[in-house]
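User: Predict the structure for this protein chain, please.
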Amino acid sequence: MYRRVTRRLVVAAVGVLIAATTFAHQAKEAVTQVLFNERTGNIEVMHRFLLHDAEHALRRVKGINADLMRSEESRQAFADYAHANFSLRDQDGELLTLRSVGHEIEGKFLWVYAEAPAPSDITALEISHGALRDIWPDQVNLVNVDRGGQSESALFAAGATSIRVEIPAD
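Assistant: Here is the predicted structure, written as structure tokens:
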């Protein structure tokens, strides 16, 4: 009897893991890190997107059959799209001009990078992050803001288009 119950539990656990893996693959999510680099005086932005999602997005948004692994042109097209759908404003609503500093593939992710000079008097960021959310309503974008070892987060889900984050003091 013990073996039968144990075997059933194992079979059930494997079933749950397979289902979780299937649903995990369908999850639409991206993570962005906004880092105040004290050494350079810049705000550094690092977006991490799943390659699979980025390729599907390019097909839908640009109408191109993207191959991010092999095509620099496809990677640049997606980076341009990501930059166009992300912005930072200071506490007074002034747009911070982000400059693209590249992109790269790491494993199953496409990283897209940007930076801007950090205003010396900044106390808050108004963040907008619509990348992929214009394609998939269930897309979730998490933005972590780090300054001086302290972090704040903004979660873009459902109808969120802009979120204000207080910036920890230096």
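The radius of gyration is 19 Å.
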